[in-house]
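Q: Got a minute? One more chain.
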Amino acid sequence: MTLILWTLFGYLLGSVPFGLVITRALGLGDLRQIGSGNIGATNVLRTGNKPAALATLLLDSGKGAIAVLLARHFAGDGAAMVAGGAAFLGHCFPIWLGFKGGKGVATFLGTVLALHWPLGLIACATWALTAAVTRISSLSALVAAVAVPIVALVTGRGDLVAVTCFMTALILIRHHANIRRLMSGTEPRIGRK
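A: Always. Here it is, folded:
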């Protein structure tokens, strides 16, 4: 019963579409009608409002981290993994938006940081290094997501492999159109509207 409650809590927290809330509050329009139509920080950046994009990044990552930290505090590590995975799922398929959400990258990073901060730092560093070299957000996300379960396994955190594989698989699925554009050389670079 406890795990069900933490799953529900994580999912509902993850379902809060901060990118959409922030852009509407700032009068930037409906984010779903801008750029890629995604509700995440990369698409918020396409509005030209960098503070709004940063706020979206922090809040989207924060909801994954908060779900993990609260569940761990009150119910242990198993509940933390369930709540974090559910928050990630909520971001990708939010009930408030008819289950049409974001691609989950920021929530993934926040969740991994809270589950095991060294692994989270490796994920963030991998994203940042790939972004600095390629200037392609989707490629950075894909490289970081694939690296996380591998690094978890290699560094002896086998307990995190299942939840990180689940999130990585969903990130790959949610990026199917980006992968096609990457293969054709038409994927937009960071900062392009």
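A: DSSP finds ten helices and no strands in the chain.
Q: Perfect, thanks.
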